């Protein structure tokens, strides 16, 4: 099975980082968040990836082109123009990097990589969010439901603390509880190729027309995820993820 990852957006809400690199290349613990996402899927047995490039996509191409070099110890002899590689380490990944256009919308990017997909279902996600979602269980759930699409439904954490007040006295304080109880798009999908027929061009936003139509036609299942989930939309989000990683308590690190 393959996983398609969107990595082409501008990332304007975290412009402190994205002026020099695409959002999926922002580092958490010294590694791009894109690497963390691939590690999550790899842990669940998915090693074949199709990455949709756009804004500064050449930096992602250069990263994977030099991945083996980045992950190994090397001796470079400048006199003989030779290189010895020591302690080789690389992931068992096959990564297809596709330029899907600078201004293409999310649905359009997905449709542009259709020729790189197999006939069966595939995973689909964004290049800027991590979770401890059980990918294998999500795929099994999707197969059992028999719909064209499955979405991972999550409840976002609250941003502020909550107070219960009675007669001008606080009776309960809870630091950053869950949100208002609504379930939202967690960004981890399993799709059949037939779901691509709901995308009508480069300007198609996946989260609007296609998902709305799939829902109306009862072709969109919801896999409920109650564990950790965190998008990296802002610098605040990035700093939170970095803090969890540095303290050794990153919930999305499901791999050894």
List keywords for this structure.
256 residues; alpha/beta; 15 strands; 8 helices
Overall description:
The protein is an alpha/beta fold and 256 residues long. Helix content is 26%, strand content 29%. It has eight helices and 15 strands. Strands 7-4-1-8-13-10-14 form a seven-stranded mixed beta sheet, sandwiched between helices. A two-stranded antiparallel sheet has the order 2-3. Strands 5-6 form a two-stranded antiparallel ribbon. The chain starts with a strand and ends in a 10-residue tail after the last helix.
In short:
The chain has 256 residues and is an alpha/beta fold. The chain contains 8 helices and 15 strands.
Overall geometric form: globular
Name the strands of the widest sheet in spatial order: 7-4-1-8-13-10-14
Main sheet: strands, sense, barrel: 7 strands, mixed
Total helices: the number is 8
Unreliable stretches: none
């Amino acid at each position: 099975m393959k996983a398609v990852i969107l990595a082409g957006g501008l990332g304007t809400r975290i412009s402190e980082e994205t002026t020099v690199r695409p959002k999926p290349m922002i580092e958490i613990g010294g590694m791009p968040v894109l690497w963390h996402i691939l590690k999550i899927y790899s842990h669940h047995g998915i090693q074949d990836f199709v990455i949709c490039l756009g804004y500064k996509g050449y930096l992602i191409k250069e990263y994977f082109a030099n991945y083996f070099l980045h992950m190994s110890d090397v001796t470079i002899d400048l006199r003989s123009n030779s290189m010895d590689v020591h302690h080789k380490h690389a992931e068992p990944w096959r990564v297809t990097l596709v330029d899907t256009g600078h201004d293409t919308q999310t649905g359009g990017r997905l449709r542009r990589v259709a020729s790189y997909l197999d006939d069966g279902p595939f995973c689909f996600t964004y290049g800027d969010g991590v979770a401890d979602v059980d990918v294998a269980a999500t795929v099994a759930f999707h197969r059992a439901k028999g719909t064209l699409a499955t979405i991972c439904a999550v409840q976002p954490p609250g941003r502020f603390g909550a107070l219960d007040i009675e007669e001008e006295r606080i009776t309960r304080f809870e630091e950053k509880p869950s949100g208002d109880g609504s379930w939202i798009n967690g960004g981890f999908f399993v799709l059949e190729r037939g779901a691509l027929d709901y995308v009508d061009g480069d300007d198609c936003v996946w989260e609007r027309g296609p998902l709305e139509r799939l829902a109306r036609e009862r072709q969109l299942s919801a896999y409920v995820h109650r564990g950790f989930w965190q998008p990296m939309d802002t610098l605040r989000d990035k700093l939170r993820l970095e803090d969890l990683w540095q303290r050794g308590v990153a919930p999305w690190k499901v791999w050894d």
